[in-house]
TrEMBL record:
It comes from the Bacteria. This is Urea carboxylase-associated protein 1. It comes from Marinomonas posidonica (strain CECT 7376 / NCIMB 14433 / IVIA-Po-181). InterPro entries: DUF1989, UAAP2. Pfam families: DUF1989. Residues 17-185 form the DUF1989 domain.
Amino acid sequence: MIKESQFDAHNANQKYTVDSGDYFIRYIPAGATFRFVDLEGNQAADTLFYNAHHPAERYSATDTIREQGNVYLTAGSQLRSNENQVMLEIVADTCGRHDTLGGACATESNTVRYDLEKRCMHACRDSWMLAIAEHPEFDLDKRDISHNINFFMNVPVTSAGGLTFEDGISAPGKYVEMKAHMDLIVLISNCPQLNNPCNGYNPTPIEVLVWDTHH
Ligand SMILES: [Zn+2]
């Protein structure tokens, strides 16, 4: 569902650019609204969310899909935790649909899906592991790297129930915006994948804007 934001980008309290192949990890407090912008189009932002006070509570694709009765995420979707609490809600979306079924790329899946020689190519799982290693203050470890959301990524379900990775439905400047319902840790890998069309074979930066009402 296409829904425009009520916020003005110029009034954001915080603004970050995340290059493809890089990670982003920050605390986002309850009540804050934040936006991911697909700056150049057809980019996948592989994202995990945690309860900042209790990171064992984390985003759950199964709870989210079951409760909303739909496999795609868009404006109005409530993103739920493995304790079935609403962690955040998508409040605006100019892309229209986001994937939470396809999972993140890893060096292992690259070798299985594409070629053994892809093993040394950079992958989202590596970026997440680097993020938690370089930021011990978030108290995350390997077991916390779990099922994610692929913002802007197009993974349609076929009539036979299959999953396909298709060329993007996003475009330059499209965005998705969420409101935090609890204090969150947000962990993004801006996907470096070159072997399927999730990034249009050309990984590009995204932007993160935060409107924190406490400021
Ligand atoms: Zn990836």
